Amino acid sequence: MRKVIVTCAVTGAVHTPSMSPHLPKTPDEIAAAAIEAAAAGASVVHLHARDPEDGRPSQDPALFRRFLPRIAEACDIVINITTGGAPTMGIEERLQPALTFQPEIASLNMGTMNFGLYEMLGRFREFRYDWEEPYLRNSDANIFRNTFRDIEHILKSCGANGTRFEIECYDVAHLYTAAHFRDRGLLEGPLFIQTVFGIRGGIGVHYEDIAMMKRTADRLFGDDYVWSVLGGGRHQMPIATMSAAMGGNVRVGLEDSLWGAPGQLATSNVEQVRRIRTVLEALSLEVATPDEARAMLKLKD
Ligand code: KMH
Ligand code: ZN
C-alpha cells in the first residue's frame, strides 16, 4: 500500500486568536497540538511560535525552546520549523529558530509574492488583542519577501546543518525556481515540494491548477521529488483528498484552515489529522510513520 506523508501545521502566522479559540498560541498549546497530531498518525509537524500573552506570531528562539524539547520527549514526529515566519518579519529574524535548532526540515518559500490571507479573514470585526486588526489590515500592503538571494542564504545556512527543506511553491514559477536551485547544486533530491493552493497572490484551487502543478513538477523533477499539497481555508480537505488520490502527500492543520466542516470551526488540529487519515484509509492509502517519512525524504539521522 502506498504510504502518504501527513504534515500537520499547527498554528502558523496567518490566523489570529480572535478567529478561533482553538488556535494554539502558548507553548503548552503548541506542544499539546503537535503531540496529539503525532498520536493520530501525523508524520511531520510544521511549527511556528506565538507570543503566549497575545498570540502574535514570533520567531523568538526562546519561545521555540519552550515547546520543541517537550514534543521530542513525548513522541516521535519529524520536526519542521518555519523560515517563512510572517510577511511582516525580516529574513534574519525569520531564520533564527531554524538556525538555532537545526531541525530535520525547514520550510523554504520559493518566491516573493503578495500573500493575501484566506477568505474568512475579512469577516472579522472584533478583536481580542490590539495587534490583530492592524496586522490583518496591513496584510494587503505586505510583500512576502523571498528573493533569489534570500533563498540562497536559507539554503546555504540551514543546509550547512543538514536541514532539508519543505519547498513551498505557490505558483508554477516557483517550481521553475526550485529547478534553478537544483541545477545550481544548492538543492538535492529527493525534493520535498509542497504545492500551495488558494493563497490570494498564488495559484487557485481548481483541479486544473492542481493538475498543472503536478504535471510541471513531474516534468522538472521526474522521480526525484516527493509531492505534497496544501489547500488554504475551506479548500483544505477537498484539495488534500484530490491530491492524495492523484499520488500526493498532504498537509493539514489550523495554520492552513480553521474549518472542521462548512461553517464550523475545527476544535483542534488533531480533528483535521483524523479526518484526512479517514480519507486516506478510504482510498486504501496508509499514513507514513515518521521513520518512513525520514526514509522517503532522505532526512538526516
Ligand atoms: N501558511 C502557509 C501557506 C512558512 O511557514 O514558511 C505558508 C507557510 C510558510 O507555511
Ligand atoms: Zn508555516
From TrEMBL:
Zinc as UniProt keyword: yes
GO molecular function, one term: metal ion binding
Source species, domain of life: Bacteria
Cofactor: Zn(2+)
Keywords for this protein: Metal-binding, Transferase, Zinc
Annotated protein name in UniProt: Uncharacterized conserved protein, DUF849 family
Pfam families for this protein: BKACE
